[in-house]
Structure formats: structure tokens, C-alpha cells
Amino acid sequence: MTAKAYAAHTAESPLAPYSLKRREPLPSDVQIDILYCGVCHSDLHQARNEWKEAVPTVYPCVPGHEIVGRVSKVGKDVKKFKAGDYAAVGCMVDSCRTCPNCARGLEQFCQSFPTFTYNGADKISGGVTYGGYSDSIVVDEAFTLKVSDKVNLAATAPLLCAGITTYSPMRHWKVGPGQKVGVVGLGGLGHMGVKFARAFGAHVVLFTTSPEKIEDGKRLGAHEVVVSKNPDEMAKHATSFDFILDCVSANHDINAYLSLLKLDGTLTLVGAPEKPLPVAAFNLLLPRRQFAGSAIGGIAETQEMLDFCEKHNITSDIEMIPIQKINEAYDRLLKSDVKYRFVIDMASLKA
Ligand code: NAP
Ligand code: ZN
Ligand code: ZN
Questions:
Q1: Separation between Cα atoms, residue 330 and residue 316, nearest integer Å
Q2: If I label 229, which of 57, 104, 109, 176 is the partner at 20 to 30 A Cα–Cα?
Q3: How many A from CA of 271 to the centre of ligand 2?
Q4: Which of 37, 41, 220, 296 gets mutated to test ligand 1 (max ligand atoms within 8 A of its CB)?
Q5: Which value, in Å, is the radius of gyration of the alpha carbons in the chain?
Q6: Angstrom distances, CA of residue 342 to CA of 18, 78, 97, 103, 221
Q7: Which residues, other chains included, contact 169 with Cβ-Cβ below 8 Å and sequence gap of 6+?
Q8: pLDDT one-digit tens code per residue, 268-300
Q9: CB 128 within 8 Å of CB 117
Q10: Nearest to 296 by CA among 161, 118, 197
């Protein structure tokens, strides 16, 4: 089947229309007509090859891993879906499924490397995977998520990456009542981080470089908002946090946040800036602080997060765009000008 898409053809060129082949559904595959796809900052990093040798980009690259759509066809062995159901796909479309990490439901840490939704090595075609900036996708049902027909589908799409990437570490480090929790950067990930930390019952402090986001930060669930460029405001919070989630897409001073952790507090990085972040040793040694990382979440946990969001009425705050505005959206991401996730209305691809 031919799919319409938008692709980056080089690191420097804007995304442009592209057509690609999707496989005919195999017995365990679900074929999805994509309705909405969120725009993650990772899409921009990857399209522009900013992660270089860590995750080199194969061109043409069709980004997009916050996918919600309607099932159009299923393979003969598919049990969870039928044509007409809503379905979602996040950052992974396969993994080895047998290694110890996969066996624990941590497919994102598959020891043979998961197959990412785009720019991944496609085990079936032998080529590269193409993501959700497209009108269709074919994915094994084991990596396809259920979406309720009662939710706002467009505002649910960003949960597939921004949602799970913030939900999973907060669950892992047991964010909850009685804790002081910081979220750094109010973008796609950060605004979901604020919502989850609040929903889990923590005292939530948002750190932003953008003073104009203070009111939004509070509306989204933060008890306090700190403008991180102001050293006096930062100093008031020294050595006081149990947990901080760093959602910043660009290089910044990580030491400014490490010094806000109390004894045994943890700073978890989910942002993936291009360059290394230097850490001052004494910011970790005293008082026994931890600096950690986390990546998306496993499939079962992603379904758990979607179900939690439906139950607690949590979605992303979105700005819908036609796909023709994707390059403008990337420019705005770089200016921290997003409220708080762009979502592509895939009907625009038919225009
Ligand atoms: P985004 O929507 O562009 O938000 C990033 C936010 O970071 C901005 O809104 C801004 O917030 C802050 N920021 C930007 N430049 C900054 C700078 N120079 N100094 C300090 N703060 C700055 O990006 P996103 O989609 O949320 O993604 C964030 C990062 O997470 C990206 O690097 C992305 O690749 C990565 N990511 C990782 C995973 C994972 O599994 N670990 C998953 C998805 C994405 P303020 O205006 O509030 O300061
Ligand atoms: Zn993402
Ligand atoms: Zn595995």
C-alpha cells in the first residue's frame, strides 16, 4: 500500500511531501488510518540529525511517534482490534520480546534494541521504519495500544510519547503525597510532567525560562512556578526536592538543579540535548544525590498510562496544525513557543 507522508530528505532541508510503501498486514498486524500525530522535539532532533553517531538519521526520514488513528484492516490472528476501532502507536513498533528486559515489560530497554517507530531498523522490510507524519501505518498488535472512543483523540496523541516519558519515571521513583517534585521546562514533556506530578499528589514546582508561562504553569497544576533565570528565586529552593524531572531539549546548567535536591533526592533526565551536560562532582557527593535517566515506557505501562489518563480526565494541551505547517512548528519549538504540543491533523495530508 502506498502511504502519503512528509519526510526530511537531509539534515538541512525542510520537511516535504513524500510517498512510501506500507506492508500488507501480516497475520498479527493492525493497519491504521492515522487521524492525529503529535510533534515531539525528538522528531526535530532526529530530522536534523542532531544526535549524530548516538542515533544517526537515515534519510529520507518520516518522523512521528505520537499516533492515534482508526483501524482499517487486521491480520487473521489479531485479537485485540477489529476494523473501525481506535488505536494508538507510540515510540516503538517491535522488540526482541524474549530478553530479560522485554520479559519484564521494559521493551524500551530491549537488549537487542527496540525497533523505534521511525528511523529504526525494520526487521520485516529490512529497511528503515517510517513514522506517523503519514496517513497510515501497519504495526504488530503487540505494539498497538487501545484508545477509548470517549476521549479527545487529538489531545490524546501526545500521551504516546510526552505522556509515557513523564509518567514512567514518576512511577518508577514513586512520586506521591508528601513529596516536593520539580519539573524543568514547560514544553510538551514538561506540561505532562506537571499534570502527572499533581495527579500523583506531590507538591509541584515548575521551573521555566519563560516568565510568560507562569500563569499557564499554575493552571496546568504547579503549586509554585520558578523563573530559573532568577538566581534569588532558585536559591530559595536549595536542598529541598525529593525528585526533579528535567524535560529540557537544549543544553543548560544541570548543576543548578542538582543543588536543589535534598539527601537521597533524584534528578532524572528525560530531555535529550545534543551535547554532554557537565556535572560538578560535589553537587552529587553532598548530600548523597542521584542523577538518573529514563526513556519512554514499556507497552503495558503505556496502556496503564492511557487508562489512568482516561480515568482522571488528563489529556495534552494542544495546538492543531495542518501538516503543511510542520516546518513553522519546528521553528517555534526552538523558540520555546508551543502551548503545549503541536498535533498534526492528518486530514490535511489529503488536501
Ligand atoms: P519542547 O516541547 O520543545 O519543550 C522543551 C522546553 O525546554 C521548552 O519549552 C523550554 O521550556 C525548555 N527550554 C528550551 N530551550 C531551553 C534552554 N536553552 N534552556 C533552558 N530551557 C530550555 O520539547 P519536548 O518535546 O518536550 O522534548 C524535550 C526533550 O525531551 C527533547 O530533547 C526530546 O528529544 C526529549 N525526549 C526524550 C524522551 C525520552 O524518552 N527520554 C522522550 C521524548 C522526548 P521553558 O520555556 O519552560 O523554559
Ligand atoms: Zn517523542
Ligand atoms: Zn528484548
A1: 18
A2: 176
A3: 10
A4: 41
A5: 20
A6: 21, 32, 32, 34, 20
A7: 245, 268, 270, 292, 294
A8: 999 999 899 999 999 999 999 999 999 999 999
A9: no
A10: 161
Within 10 angstroms of residue 76's Cβ, the number of other Cβ atoms is: 9
Query: Could you check whether the bond before residue 60 is cis, i.e. omega within 30 degrees of 0?
Result: yes
Find residue 94's DSSP bridge partners: 115
How far is the centre of ligand 1, averaged over its atoms, from the C-alpha of 189 (Å)?
Answer: 7
Q: Classify 170 as helix, strand or coil.
A: helix
Res. 351 pLDDT band, cuts 50 70 90: confident
- At 52, the amino acid letter reads K
- In the chain, the domains with their CATH numbers are 2-161+297-350 (3.90.180.10), 163-293 (3.40.50.720)
C-alpha cell at 193: 510532567
What is the model's pTM? 0.98
Q: Which of 50, 118, 189 to mutate to test the pocket of ligand 1 (most atoms within 8 A of CB)?
A: 189
Please write the tens of the pLDDT for every residue from 189-248. 999 999 999 999 999 999 999 999 999 999 999 999 999 999 999 999 999 999 999 999
At 119 the pLDDT is 98
Spatial contact of 122 and 24, defined as CB atoms under 8 Å apart: no
* Cell matching residue 273: 540535548
**Ligand 1 close to Cβ of residue 39 (< 6 A):** no
Q: Which residues contact 151 (CB under 8 A, 6 or more apart)?
A: 309, 310, 315
